Amino acid sequence: MKAKSLRTLVLLVFMQASLLFAQNKTGTVAGIVKSVTDLTNNQALEKIYIHIDKPYYAVGDTLWFKAYLFNAAYLNASAKSGIAYIEIANEQNQVVKRLMVSMYAGLGWGNITLNEKEFPQGNYYLRAYTNWMRNFDSHYIFEKSFYISSPGEKDMLINAKMSTAVEAGKQKAHGKLDLSSVDQKPVQLTDFQLKVMQGSKVLYKDKVSSAVDGAVDFNFIIPEKADPNKLVVTLQGLKKDEENPVYNVPVVFNRPGNIDLQFMPEGGALVADLESRVAFKALAEDGNGAFVSGSVFNSKQQEVLAFTSAHLGIGLFHLRPAAGETYVARLKLPDGSFSKPYPLPAVKSSGIILNVINRFGADSLDVDIAATADLQPGNAGFYLIGQSRGVACYGALIAIDSKKTRVKVSKAIFPTGIARLTLLNADKQPLNERIVYIDHGDHLHIDMTGMKNIYATRDSIGLDFTVTDHSGKPVRASFSVAVTDDGQVKNDSLKNNTLKSAILLTSDLKGYIEDPGYYFPAVLTEAIWQRLDNLLLTQGWVNYDWKAVFSPAAVLPFAAEANFSVKGNVTNVFNKPLAKTEVILLSKKPSILKDTVTDKNGEFNFTNIFPADTAVYLIEAKNKKGKNYNVGVDVEEFKPPVFNNPMTTLMPWYVNIDSSRIKTINNYYLYKKEQDNQPGVNRLKEVKIIGQKVIKDSKNLNGNGGSDFALDQEDLQKADKTSLGDLLKKYYPGFGLFTKLANAKYPPAPPGFIYGYTINFAFFHLIIDGINIDFGYQGPLYTYDHYKYVEQYLDYYKAEDIKGIEVMKSSKYTAKYKRNFLGNYDPIIEHAFVEVTTHGGAGPFLKKTPGLYMYRPMAFAPQKQFYSPKYIAKPDKLFLDTRSTIYWTANIITDKDGKARFSFYTADKPGTYTLLMDGCDMNGDLESIQRKMIVK
After folding, report:
1. Which range of residues forms the domain containing residue 179?
2. Is the same domain home to 576 and 621?
3. I want to staple 63 with a disulfide (CB 3.0 to 4.6 A). Which of 112, 594, 825, 932 is the partner?
């Protein structure tokens, strides 16, 4: 349904609601419809989706992406935001990379190089959002997890199996690790150090050896206070004179008796003597749906009904609960016994049930409402409100009598996507809610031609496609296309969350949606339709704040950013704004010189600026005498949000991979090896260069390179506005707060008390430009006051202020620092020193230069062209084409006839390619398709 059509529909619904109001002489229905619509228009929620070229990467790859930004209500291009933010965080939730993306008509694209220095092998989380989106539920933030691997000849593959048993009253775990090389040969008779960890705590440690078949068996007792879901097995080889990497294997038991089983009565509650549909969802310990079967029992242990899950642990049964009765469910375990009891929600003696029947292919919804006798008022009304994307599409006054009340609601009044039905009482308080999916089949239609049955290697592929709307009219739309080699990249159509499934389904639901692609097949069947309805009965949805509907519009803290600008204010020595003050913005790269004057509030704003990757702006303000004395400049810096990492944890690439993924890894390694063995290619043996970085102008007492660890200016330029404290946390894991020093003289602190910052249990000293910051501190060390004193420096200095950071922890490098700086400090305690060299070189001062502000903005994402070789001339036998991403393009636009074309060349290896295409007209219609191509 077009965005324009939806807006027209809202007006018609409002007119109908107004007519209903006239008939009922209340005006409440029309008022509710208007309040809901006004709130939606005032908030103008946004949805964002990121299409990336493949689901996982190797170290050194480039991540290619396209961003689609919508007005959530009408699915047209958002008019609020012209800037989006893309960030990648690691497993510790530390943001490794953050970039701005310039959005034009709701579209933007770019690329991120996954170099080994910034992106070592591991799990990562890609997030995307606008500043405006930060005002609302964080679930609207786009988030996708992916893995970066670095497979090599010496890497191991690990097949892990874990189980538990109770022995002598204690829970004992048994683990079996089958170890093999990348080419699937067993790792035989090899010694390893094995540990079982929970966080940084070691629960079990042993030296183990692999058997002839590569198996490693071990047993350990799980401590009572340990969380079995947070355990990790680490395995490290013990070969001398070799690098022995650490392999991490998250512990997953998947015990049948520990299945998480939840029951969700339709409409929200079980009500005595009213039949209700009860949906259930069963999750295994790994977070995925588990097939279950079982029975429901009453308080007399009588079996009331049996149930079985239908898909991914989700199922449904009908129950008419008796007044005063309680119910539990028990699952049938593999040994034939019943599991522990799972209580169903308590039965309410008074209440209302809401039952919505959404039949496959039907043109209307059957809404059944029933209430207990005490809530059958006769003349007092209930209100049924239907919404989609936050827009009120339906409103009616409902009378409930002693019998079930049925209301037919036309599906035609809702756009495609999730619709929400809410029953409110006379006081406009929500009583029941239910979400359903509406499908009008009005997505874009893509007709692709020119595709052959089979292609040769290094063959030219040219594809034409035509795009029409549901009525057959040509459409101008923008598409992104990724083509990947199945031999190196496994694309699972069920697990893929495409533009279509994300915007129409998952963005309106909370929690992890397993296999979202399953619900959007090429041909929708009745079985899948029913399973989608079951999903919506069990899955939490983004909450709707009904209090906000009837409250005055709130002032939201995060402003929408239509474009990039440099904003700030100028004040005098008394912190009062200075009006009509000259402000100059200067940049050398790119070369920019702009000037303006402050307004009556002392504020200035520079627009039409596009920051380069390493742009630095000098902003200078001068008083009426042309001096910057007693003039202060402050710039509105972007303050990044802090998000929680999702609960889902990706397994490392080398753990429990299936046969197709093993083939993928094998191919990756063999392709590399084959390329290295090409004629004329001489591969040098890896040489590790060990040496410390030299920090220019450093006051390091040990001289150049005299540190255990260092960050230079090249490292810091990539860190943007990261604070000194966050830099140390990110790059030096041993740095942090501690409540117990490594000395018996200082006992453990009471709960909530902080001794201070430490580096691997050594007391932390901060030296800035050769000056110990403690020279300005008068109180005792190892106290909360000292911790706060140090913290202000860690927060104040940013990466842009710093030339280099050097960490001295070993006695080799701390000796001179102890002699020069410790004085009468306790000599027993271990000490570590961090030398910070600033650009100003003036030492530890917390006051910025008057009248000047050095501003290093976040860079915009680069928009490089994807390189796709063209094989026209004589084949180059010295070059082996092993691309995993065969082709990527971010913005193919169809013409007025709905037509477009793209072309690329196949690579050197036979196999199968997967083509994924996302696109939309930015006016309400979108589509996602997948195609396969065979290369021989």
Report:
1. 156-244
2. yes
3. 112
CATH number at residue 610: 2.60.40
Shared-domain flag, residues 579 and 643 = yes
Q: Say what the pLDDT of residue 752 is.
A: 45
Residues 133 and 181 in one domain: no
For 517-530, what is each residue's pLDDT tens digit?
999 998 999 999 99
Shared domain for 713 and 836, answered yes or no, is yes
Residue 575 CB neighbours (<10 A): 8
Which three-class secondary structure state does DSSP give residue 629? coil
Strand order in the sheet with 926-935: 454-455, 926-935, 911-920, 478-485, 885-893
And the tokens for 220?
């350990």
pTM score, whole prediction: 0.83
916/492 Cα distance (integer angstroms): 11
Reference 695, options 834, 813, 837, 842; nearest CA is: 837
What's the number of domains the chain is made of?
Answer: 4
Question: Among all chains, which residue has been given the structure tokens 């913290």?
Answer: 791
Structure confidence at residue 153 (pLDDT): 63
Please, which residues have CB within 8 angstroms of residue 237's CB and are 6 or more apart in sequence?
Answer: 190, 191, 192, 193, 244, 245
In this prediction, residue 824 has a pLDDT band, given cuts at 50, 70 and 90, of low
**Cβ contact 418:536 at 8 Å:** yes
User: Residue 424: inside a domain, yes or no?
Assistant: no
End residue of a domain, out of 805, 840, 875:
840
Distance CA 393, CA 13 (A): 6
pLDDT tens for each residue of 138-178? 888 999 999 888 776 678 899 999 988 888 888 899 999 99
* Token couple for 547: 């209090």
Mean pLDDT confidence for 502-515:
91
Both tokens of 230, joined, read: 């947070």
Under 8 Å between Cβ of 585 and 595: yes
Phi-psi region at 450: left, alpha or beta (left = phi > 0; alpha = psi -120 to 50): left
Say whether both 714 and 822 belong to one domain.
yes
Whether 672 is covered by a domain: the verdict is: no
Asked whether residue 204 is assigned to any structural domain, the reply reads: yes
At residue 554, does pLDDT exceed 90? Answer: no
Query: Among the listed ranges 39-43, 378-382, 503-507, which one has the minimum average pLDDT value?
Result: 378-382
Q: Are residues 124 and 239 in the same domain?
A: no
- The CATH number covering residue 141 comes to 2.60.40.1930
Task: Give the separation between CA 858 and CA 611, rounded to whole angstroms.
Answer: 8
For residues 188 and 127, state if they share a domain.
no
Q: Could you give the CA distance from residue 650 to residue 695 in angstroms, rounded to a whole number?
A: 38
Structural contact between residues 377 and 403, judged by C-beta atoms closer than 8 angstroms: no
Could you tell me the sign of the dihedral formed by the alpha carbons of 673, 675, 679, 684, in that order? negative
CATH number for the domain that contains residue 820: 2.170.130
Name 830's Cβ contacts closer than 8 Å, sequence gap at least 6: 742, 761, 762, 763
- Of residues 261 and 117, more confidence is placed in 261
The predicted model gives 31-45 an average pLDDT of 87
580 assigned to some structural domain: yes
Q: Verify cis geometry, omega within 30 degrees of 0, for the bond prior to 228.
A: no
Long-range residue pairs from 752-756, CB within 8 A, at least 24 positions apart, any chain: 753/784, 754/784, 754/787, 755/782, 755/783, 755/787, 756/781, 756/782, 756/783, 756/786, 756/787, 756/790
Output the pLDDT for position 877.
57
Distance, in Å, from the CA atom of 319 to the CA atom of 304, rounded to the nearest integer, reads: 9
Give CA torsion, residues 657, 661, 667, 669, to 10 deg: -30
Query: Does residue 78 contact residue 86 with C-beta atoms inside 8 Å?
Result: no
CB of 804 within 8 A of CB of 719?
no
Average pLDDT, rounded, for the chain:
86
Residue 441 and residue 370 in contact, taking contact as beta carbons nearer than 8 Å:
no
Share of the chain above pLDDT 70, in %: 87
If asked whether residues 110 and 93 sit together in one domain, one would say yes
Q: Residue 167: CA atoms inside 13 Å, Cβ hemisphere, count?
A: 10
Candidates 551, 609, 653; CA nearest to 860 is: 609
Among the three residues 824, 859, 894, which one is the final residue of a domain in this structure? 859
